[in-house]
Amino acid sequence: MKTERRALAMEIRANGRKLEGYAATFNNPADIGGIFMETIAPGAFAASLRARRDILALVDHDPGRVLARTRSGTLRLAEDTKGLAFSLDVPDTSAGRDVLALAERGDVGGMSFGFTAVDEHRDGDRRELRGVDLHEISIVLAWPAYDGTIVQARSLQSAAPHRAYAERALKLLELSR
């Protein structure tokens, strides 16, 4: 099974030295590089969360820039009716200070998550993720894969895309290799 990465419309807000928001939202269709449309079903993260595996919060999917982890309690994840909610304690490291400063300014691109699909339904060019093995969530500094994905400190706002959707999707696919 191949690890995949996705970014979805979500919100993130700074709350002191914490970042809070959604790493993924349910039933929000996303065009994956013009190849297929994908949605995440409610409950898709439930098994991963019940397994109490160590899930990381990273910067741009880079394991060299760990922000928090569930094992230490510095990353908290939960499913609610909207999606995969998170709260993380921002470390006093260069990566943590940079992410917090960028989030407060509204300069962060979005959120993403790394996963392996364990239960999916395909119907032509449509894919629904019904169960995933969650590996990590990531703050994406530049181009999230999905249109409308944005990170803002303290609020959810719409923003114009930085680049055409296809360019963002291709960039994310290149990073995942």
The CATH topology name reads Serine Protease, Human Cytomegalovirus Protease, Chain A
Task: Enumerate the spans where pLDDT stays under 50 for 5 or more consecutive residues.
Answer: 146-174
Q: Give the overall shape, derived from the CA principal axes.
A: globular
Q: Largest beta sheet, briefly?
A: 7 strands, mixed
- The number of E-state strands comes to 11
Distance between the termini: 14 Å
The amount of beta strand, in percent, is 35-45%
Order of helices and strands: EEEEEHEEEEHEEH
Q: How many structural units, i.e. domains?
A: 1
Helix % is 10-25%
Q: CATH class, anyone? A: Alpha Beta
**How many helix segments?**
3
Radius of gyration: 15 Å
Compute the average pLDDT.
77
Helical/strand content category? alpha+beta
The CATH architecture classification is Alpha-Beta Barrel
InterPro entries: Peptidase_S78_dom, Prohead_protease
Keywords: Hydrolase, Protease, Viral release from host cell
Domain Prohead serine protease: 14-157
Organism: Nitratireductor basaltis
Summarize the structure.
This protein is 16% helix and 43% strand. The chain has 177 residues and is α+β, with helices and mostly antiparallel strands.
